[in-house]
Amino acid sequence: MKNNKEFLYNLYIIIILILIDFGWGIIMKGSNKLSLGHGVLLTLTYSISFFSIYFLNYYYFLPHFLNKKKYVWFGFSIILMILLFAGIRFLLEEIISPALFNLNNYNLKHKNITFIYLTDSFIYALKACLYSSVIYLLFRNNEHKDALHKLNIQHQKAQLTTLKSQLSPHFLFNTLNNFYAELYDEKPETAHDILKLSQLLRYVTYETSDDYVSLEKEIQFIKDYVYFFKRRYENNLHLTLQINGPIIQQRIPSLILIHFVENVCKHGIINNINKPAKIIITVTSHSLEITTKNYINKAEKYMESGIGTQNIQKRLEVIFKGNFILESNEDDLIFKTYLKLPL
Fold first, then answer.
1. How far apart are alpha carbons 243 and 181 in whole angstroms?
2. What value does the mean pLDDT take over residues 151-164?
3. Is the pLDDT of residue 2 over 60?
4. Which residue would you say has higher pLDDT here, 49 or 14?
5. Distance of alpha carbon 204 from its chain centroid, rounded?
6. Residue scoring higher pLDDT (182 or 125)
7. CA-based angle 292:298:300, to the nearest 5?
8. What pLDDT, on the 0 to 100 scale, is given for residue 34?
C-alpha cells in the first residue's frame, strides 16, 4: 500500500513535468498537422525516455548507490543514464517512428547525429536524474522522521512501562516493610522471614537488571532461596549447600547459579534423609564451579520442567565464547550437573 502510493505520487510528478516542458510548445505550433504530429511524437518519445530513466534511477541506482553512500558508483550511473536516455530517444525517434509513422526528429544522414543526440539528451536526462533524486530523498527523509517519531513514542511507552513496573514492586516492598515493623516485637521469627522475602524480591527486581551482578549478592540470594525451603520443610529438608573459597569483588552473569539451585529444589528430592541433595559452590582466584547432585523426583518430568538448561547453554556461549564447562548426566535416577566459569 505504501509503495503503491509512492509510485502514484511519482507518476503524477512526471506527468506534470512533461506537460510543463512540452505543453506550451505544442500549443505554440498551432493547427499545422505536421507540426502538431511532430510535437506529439516528440512528447511521446521524450515521455517514454524520461519515465524509463526516472524510475530506473528511483528504484535501482538511488537505493543501491546513493542510499548506501557509494557516491562514485552513483556518478557512473548518471553517465550511464544519460547514454540510455539518448539511446532510447534515438531508437524511438529515428528507427521505430519513421517505420510506423514516417516521422523522425533528425536526419539519419547527418554526420553528427550521435553527438546531437548526446548533447540534446544531456539536459533532459539530468532533469530525470535530478527530479527522481529529489523526490526519493524527500520520501526517505519523511520515512526517517516517521521512524524517529515512532521510536520516540516507543521510548516513552517503555519509560512508562518501566515506571509502572517500578511502582508496583515499590508498593509491595513498602507493604512488606510495614508487616515487618508490625510483627518485629510480637513475632520476630515471622518478621525475619518477611525481611528475607523482601530482600529476595528486591534482588530479583532491581539487582538482576544488569548483565553482571556481584557474586556475593548472588550467593546471598541463593542462601535466602534455600532458607525458604528450610522453612517449608522444617526439619525434613535434606539439602546441603556448601560454599568454598574467598568471595570478594567478583562479578558473574546474573541468575546463572540460581538455575541449578532451583532445579534441585523444585524438581529433585530434597525431603528424604536416605536420598540427600547436595549443592557445592567453589570459588578460586580464576574460576567459579558449581556442582549439584540430587535424586530425581519421579512425579516430575525432570528434564522438561527444568528452567531452560538449553537457554543457559546459549547464554553462556554468547558471554564466554566456549570458555566454560557445562555438564549434566543422569545415572540410576541420580541427576548431576557441573558448571565451571572463568572469573
1. 32
2. 60
3. no
4. 49
5. 26
6. 125
7. 80
8. 46
Residue 306 has pLDDT above 60, yes or no: no
CA-CA-CA-CA dihedral for 76, 78, 84, 90, to nearest 10: -120
Domains in the chain, start-ordered, CATH in brackets? 2-149 (no CATH), 234-342 (3.30.565.10)
Nearest to 242 by CA among 200, 295, 302, 289: 289
| Sequence-distant (≥ 6) Cβ neighbours of residue 126 within 8 angstroms | 78, 82
Residue 279 has pLDDT above 60, yes or no: yes
| Helix, strand, or coil (residue 292) | strand
Amino acid at 263: N
In the block, residue with C-alpha cell 557474586? 215
Return the SS3 of 161.
helix
Give the number of other CB atoms < 10 A from CB of residue 131.
19
Please give the model's pTM, rounded to 2 decimal places: 0.49
Cα distance between residue 199 and residue 187, in whole Å: 19
Cell of 290: 558449581
Residue 92 cell numbers, joined: 524511438
Q: What is the DSSP-derived secondary structure letter of residue 272?
A: -
Does position 201 have pLDDT exceeding 70, yes or no? yes
Task: Provide the phi-psi class of 327: left if phi over 0, else alpha when psi is between -120 and 50, else beta.
Answer: beta
Residue labelled with grid coordinates 500500500: 1
